[in-house]
Amino acid sequence: MTDRDDLPEVNGYSRVSVLISTVVGLVVAGLALFWAQGFRIGYESLYRVNPSVEGGGIGSDWVFGNTIPALDFLIALIHAADVILGAFILVMVFIHWAAFQRLADQMREPGEDVSEAVAADGGSPNSGDRQGGDGA
Amino acid sequence: MSNLDHGKFTRVTTLFHSLLGLDVFLLFFTGYAIMFNDELWWMLTLMGGASGVTAIHRITGIGLIALVVFWITLQIISSTGRSNFSKILPAKDDIDAFIQDIQFVLGRADERHPSARQFAGYKADEVPLLSYIGKGVVFIFSIELTLLAISGLLIWSKTGLAAMFQTKAAAMAFVTFHGLLGVIMLMGVMFHIFEHGMHPAFYPVETKAFIPRSMVPEHHGDDEEPDTTGIERLSLSPSWRTVSTIFGAMTVIGIVSVLIGSIFDEGYPVPRELAIGGGPASILLTIGINLGMIVLGVGLVLSMYGNVLRIRWEQQLEEEREPPAAADGGEPQTDGGQPNTDDAASEN
Fold this sequence. Notes:
Protein name (chain B): Cytochrome b561 bacterial/Ni-hydrogenase domain-containing protein
Mean pLDDT of chain A: 73
Radius of gyration of chain A: 30 Å
Radius of gyration of chain B: 23 Å
Distance between the termini of chain B: 10 Å
Main location (chain B): membrane
Transmembrane segments (chain A): 12-36, 73-100
Region (Disordered) (chain A): 111-136
Keywords (chain A): Membrane, Transmembrane, Transmembrane helix
Oligomer: heterodimer
Order of helices and strands of chain A: HHH
Structural class of chain A: mainly alpha
Strand order of the largest sheet of chain B: 1-2
Number of strands of chain B: 2
Largest sheet of chain A: none
């Protein structure tokens, strides 16, 4: 690029910080993988006959279902969060949908005289195929 | 002189956004093919069944951790990142922007608040780094991604997971918890795609997330001081009304369906309470959840399209910046939207 005078000066990220962050990201991801792999235990130690559970025995844990109340609470909490935030997100969709309709009404209809129109990308207003690239 | 609409993303941010998007889409497709296996059986089969899907989910999960840690580190160690901290904190303007958006929809305000504005046009300098929606996205997605990464690591290994819990059903309940946590983000991403794909001035995709700010000239050549953003000077795309209506409906149906699905169809293979295959696995829910996945698919395509536009933009800029070859003795190519060098120098 020979001439960037009309392009803005932008405080970007330096190469060094990007490089350091990349290395840290990859190392932490690698360690996380290593840590998660460490959870593996031998199949031998799993699900033997379990006499301490009432009516215990092989497969009895499926019958009893989830026996940790804290987990039940967590799931109920997340269900509530899903519903509340879901409703909020829906409100946001509707507000934006309606706002977009109003904004579209402020714009020129397709085919209207565009002699004074400017393109959103700062390109040529008369070549409609260059606006946002939606030439189809 | 007047300002031109421009994005706020740096080159690194555009790249990070695209990679994060791709990774999260893959996590959604694989994760929800498991959770909603009744409705998305074809997706599960397409990605190699249970083993294929979980393998892709794990690989992209590690990718997500790398990306998130990369971003946190970059924000802490770079002065650009640190200087942005104060700009992401919620402020009174954000509440005002939300209220004004409602007023705008009801016809009681003439324009959107600067903190809500996506199309800033001539008033680009009034627009803060993040809109109120942008701040919400940053906060909710940060919390979600952190919790999802931690709970994801805890359920990484099936045997390790089982060892942590009393029963297999309890272990599966924790997997369910992980899936339900992601539903918030799944719904949020659908809205995000609608918001940035269907804005009438940017339709079909808001390129501000893909073309870095450093590549967009900020000033337009005319001298008038405009009163408006200038949106009334833009032409609406002929397909916008139809496509935005269909896509808006798909977004709403998708969000409602995954929400209903998450309540009634929560567990795999066994739900929290032992009711195998429980819930209204009806044809409507199946269609709705699949529509939601199509919304995500459109988002993936738009993200790729945004990158194609960036490459085309770069090439065009490159061509225009080359010293005029003018082998034929004619004028070098000019573009109405790009101010010439003299204008820009005098403006700066």
